[in-house]
Amino acid sequence: MAKRKTIWITGASSGLGWEIALEAGKKGYRTVLLARNTKKLYELQKLIEELGGEAHVYSFDVSKPEMITKVTKKIMTEVGQIDVLINNAGFGVFERVESTNIKNVEEMFAVNVIGLIALTKQILPYLLEQNSGHIINIASQAGKLSTPKSSVYAATKHAVLGFTNGLRLELHDQKIHISAVNPGPIKTAFFERADQEGTYVKNVEKWMLDAQEVAKATIRLIEKPKRELNLPRWMNVGTTLYQLMPGIIERVGGKRFNQK
Question: How far, in Å, CA of 146 to CA of 47, rounded?
């Protein structure tokens, strides 16, 4: 019988991370649930166990490198396995640059970028030793096409994509897969902080992705790895055109970009 894969998921206490963990449980994977809100994680653990799955809960603040080191060692001692790391933890605050509080900037980079890199660095020796594994980084279409009021958030996701692509090349000769998931806006609690006025959600609600569907597509990457998963496809066409002819796209789509 094949060994059951163990999946670590950051930001598992809500939103997309919660749905990814549930989907992983349904598929029979063993999950390691990581987030600050352990109360929600224990609720999730119970749901996964009711589905016949196995879940382990660890209090985890991705913005604290010293905690990343300590908790990673603890998990490897107690659970003893990692096959897939899903770097999902992240948040955004949508503001014009002149109104942005620099503490929000620092926090977004600490969580979305530095924490992601720090955790990846911690688990890489284990993956390299076993010469297998998969790192899935949840980036964003915003990392390909920035829009007004998302300048800083887009910068963090652009950094995630740059890191993901570089890491993939570094591990080219290893049996370790590196994937980026680039969703458009997802209907989750993410926007309670990102869009406190509710303007953006109101303008794009009909196009927002369903978190369960994004989670299912993300988990499918484990069995069929690929370089990038872009959702929805039509939005990725737009970001691709932007990379080819940014000036034209900015002129044509200028008003539509101001949805926030």
Answer: 37
Whole-structure pTM value: 0.89
Q: Which of 149, 129, 37 is nearest to 76 (CA)?
A: 129
DSSP characters over 53-71: -EEEEEE--TT-HHHHHHH
Please write the tens of the pLDDT for every residue from 97-114: 999 999 999 999 999 999
Contact 156, 113 (CB under 8 A): yes
Our answer to whether residue 153 is catalytic in this structure is yes
Provide the pLDDT confidence category of residue 77 given band limits of 50, 70 and 90. Answer: very high
Residues in the chain: 260
Q: Which residues on neighbouring strands pair with residue 30, listed in sequence order?
A: 6, 54
Encode pLDDT of 167-197 as tens digits: 999 999 999 999 999 998 887 777 667 656 6
CB distance 147 to 259 below 8 Å: yes
Q: What is the sign of the dihedral through the CA atoms of 106, 135, 7 and 225? A: positive
Those residues with Cβ within 8 angstroms of residue 133's Cβ, 6 or more apart along the chain or in another chain: 82, 83, 84, 85, 123, 126, 127, 175, 176, 177
Paired residues of 230 in beta bridges: 182
Q: Which of 29, 58, 153, 200 is catalytic?
A: 153
Residue 88 has pLDDT above 50, yes or no: yes
For the chain, which domains are there?
6-257 (3.40.50.720)
Contacts of 91 (CB under 8 A, 6+ apart): 107, 108, 111, 112, 190, 193, 194
